[in-house]
Hints:
- This protein has helices at residues 3-26, 29-39, 48-51, 90-98, 103-113, 174-187, 261-270, 276-287, 293-335, 340-347, 351-358; strands spanning 55-61, 72-76, 117-119, 125-129, 145-150, 157-165, 205-214, 218-223, 242-250.
- By secondary structure, the chain is an alpha+beta fold.
- The longest helix has 43 residues, at 293-335.
Amino acid sequence: MGAELKEILTAANEKTQYDTYAKRLLSEKCILACILTEVVDEFKGMKPKEAERYIEGETFVGSVPTEPGLTNAMKETGDLTTTEPGNWTNAEREKTATGSLTNTERESLEMFSLTDAKQDRSGQRIVGLNTIHAEIMEGVAVFDIVLYARLPEVYTRIIVNLEAQKDEPTGYDILNRAVFYMARLISSQKERDFTKVYYNDMKRVYSIWICMNMKECSWNHMHLTDEAILGQHCWKGERELINFIFLGIPKKLPGTDERYRLHRLLGALFSLGLSVEERISILENEYEIQMNDELEGRLGKMCNLGQGIWEQGVERGEELGRAEEKRATAQRLQADGFEVSIIARIVDASMELICEWLGLAPVTA
């Protein structure tokens, strides 16, 4: 195997590992809770530690397909039983014990305990989010992170999707991709979160897109608006069902200004140039995130991989810079009347490469 191919494979492997650790970090409940308390109105003003208990069931990382027909999975109704979630409130326990739950409350709480799987109204099947094993996932587009969170003080929950991008894509418009993902998260609720024509059971969705390496801190919330063109009729329905959140994170760590609180958190995770110790200090002291061995290990591994990728990029950039400088020198020498063989010796490059740079036919011996 050639050295160049080895370099490419190594870089690709490190990039894949970096992406994996980045998603794993974002999927930590303590990080998710910090994000929820900033972007979801019902969580604003709440301590992230308190918000953690509203994150329900399993957080799916890189395993739920976006492809039509693959987002949901049907399961047989075996011996699934309703057990009490560890984060029920005392009020919920009391209502359950006394049998005073309404039908809506009971259905909602039972749904939580089935780990994101819901029995349909016929009682014949369980429908939940599908997952694909990593080894057979090649070629299948998947959501980075998908989870359910229960809204405080109410018996309903929301769906949250997080997507991490190293920068704003250039091959397509990111909003268009976000709309596609949102469409799948909405349509896949049929038979999982609601059945038949019970559209009022649909869950609110937040699709959060985090783009690194941007020029400035940015934050956009796009959602449904109601523009009355004629008449005053009020059409019923929840206008907050669809929520796009776009967060631009600059290369440099944002300051401590309160406006940048969420961006500084994400910058502490992903900005280059910070040591593991600096990242941990920010997370512990500014966001009261209690580090554990697993979280610290993931942070350290991602930091090392990110530094390696950055150094490879710098080295590659320097090589390209040197080559461009040689090419410019060769063009100046050609303009001064030097022969190809002389130019090749001066800039220390092969005659074939000099001819390519100067747009000449290859020199034959």
